[in-house]
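Reply to dn_fold:

You asked what the input looked like. This is it:
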Amino acid sequence: MALRSDWSQRSCSMARGLDILGDPWGMLVLREVFFGNGRFDAMKARLGAADSVLTRRLAALVDAGLLSRRPYDDGGRQRQEYVLTAKGEDALPVLNAVVIWAEKHLPAPSEQAHMFVVHSGCGQRTTSADSCTACGERLTADNTSWHSLTRTDHPVPLATAPAAQKSAQQNGTAA
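and this is what came back:
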């Protein structure tokens, strides 16, 4: 069953982008993977999502090329975890923009319910989704941390796509 209407063939770039990035569960799944939390059970626990919801969102993000599956050994049993692709990593400014907008315009239900975008290079919070407002450097997953006060007392460096996928994207080939 489709998650919603298919906007992938619309003439509007925003509509096509929202076809992939406009689903709240999908965005929350991406948040978890950027936080380095790519295993199904860990995501399920953190998100409180039903198996069917999480399974569909993960499949949609894999089909769209934002995530890929990577095998890992779970005590003698091989399982799959989800990792960012270079295409998924490129969604970072969208997620940063949502965080920054929410912090600016929406009241937090508690003092701990805050999340900040931090440029790891200079250690400063930023109010721009794509560049550091303190030093001007372009934000990437390699140099950005998120500080979620409900998770930790310090900023968490973001997960990145495996180097082979980044190299393939830069060379114009699929990984």
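The first strand starts at residue 67 and ends at 73.
Hope that clears it up.
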